[in-house]
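Submission sheet (multi-component)
Chains listed below:
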Amino acid sequence: VSVLDLDDALWEAMADPTRRNLLDLLVSHGQSTATSLTEEMPVSRQAISKHLVLLERVGLIEGRRHGREVHYNVREQRFAQATNELYEVANRWNRRLRKIKQISEELYAAERSH
Amino acid sequence: MSANGIEHEIQIDAPIDVVWRTITEPKLIERWFSDGVDLEVRAGAVGTLRFCPDSVEEPVLAEVTVVDVDRPHLFSYRWDYPTGERAAPANSILVTFTLTRLEDAKTLFRVTETGLEQLNWSADQERDYTADHLKGWRLHAERLAQLDFTHVESFT
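Outcome: structure written.
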């Protein structure tokens, strides 16, 4: 998997530090609302709400309306998929290095057998 | 991983000149890096990498600018800078390959990738950039994956 295979909406969602902080909070709280998330972040409630809508649109979280408030929680399957892909990317250089090692050693073996 | 970038190393059971070829000859680069390589290994040269991911129809092109060449010890280049701009410390990522000769025809090979943290963009700039530049995604994801997802393991 390369990040080029990550869909752009998901990428955009993950690329923003505020949204990553929101995801962190939702992961640790299990469930929360825009109002209580605002108390924990140095960002306006309006901005928090926009970020939550975007995260919901890409499927990373889901919201359920309870009266005047929406309760959000992380959709674990989608989140795990996204973080797995990011993990793959983080390991990309390790994979490339192993490949460079393999190619070099094959070249050397071929040279020596001649 | 170092504090200011990505750093990986590996010991290779091949002489330094062979490893040098693997990382500088386009036909060999294509076996471990991108799907197409148009690159001259000369300081200041501007080349193109072509990526052909399954998810997009058109190949993705990434420009690279060679910074240092000291055969067979050092090779570095900059990339991930905005199309049409000149590569510079403020707008790009520096990738440096360092090769160290070891005994018994072995080589210590190290890669460092730095510069991401100097890209001090606002969220809007970052979003616009990532939306516009497919090639930027993969690089930024690398930073992302290293920074913030310490809690990931509970989900995987």
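Remark: The first helix of chain B runs from residue 16 to 24.
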